[in-house]
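F.,

This is the one I mentioned.
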């Protein structure tokens, strides 16, 4: 059962039969750990926007989560802090905004959990150095050819 069509999704966990937010292959967060709040959307829109609670704010407490491992928790606390928030008021439908807000939360968490590969410095090859120096020599000869000839008095 997929409840979202926006990339990362809210799915029903086959083992426990409860809704979860799949952030990555290694992280699945039960929706019970995510606080979801509906409020009225701001801005113009007349009676529907002023009366309907279609804006969704989601909040995930990193420090209190049971679904995070110690390394994941430490990385998230370091990069995004104790709580991660996301919101959506793009659509008129509360359920679509809920899916959007959960997707944005999952994206934030996935970006914060991404491990950057360390950069390994690479020396230029001998041929690339030779090409660069030859190009510099040709350019200097070209510019020297533009100069006014020296007086041979």
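My design for it:
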């Amino acid at each position: 059962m997929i409840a979202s069509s926006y990339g990362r999704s809210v799915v029903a966990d086959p083992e426990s039969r409860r809704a979860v937010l799949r952030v990555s292959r290694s992280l699945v967060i039960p929706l019970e750990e995510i606080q979801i709040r509906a409020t009225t959307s701001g801005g113009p829109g007349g009676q529907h926007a002023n009366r309907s609670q279609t804006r969704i704010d989601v909040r995930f407490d990193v420090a209190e989560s049971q679904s995070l491992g110690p390394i994941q928790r430490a990385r998230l606390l370091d990069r995004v802090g104790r709580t991660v928030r996301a919101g959506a008021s793009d659509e008129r439908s509360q359920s679509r905004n809920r899916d959007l807000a959960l997707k944005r939360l999952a994206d934030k968490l996935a970006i914060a959990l991404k491990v950057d590969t360390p950069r390994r410095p690479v020396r230029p090859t001998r041929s690339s150095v030779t090409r660069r120096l030859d190009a510099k020599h040709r350019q200097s000869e070209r510019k020297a050819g533009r100069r006014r000839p020296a007086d041979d008095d």
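The CA atoms of residues 71 and 128 lie 42 Å apart.

Talk soon.
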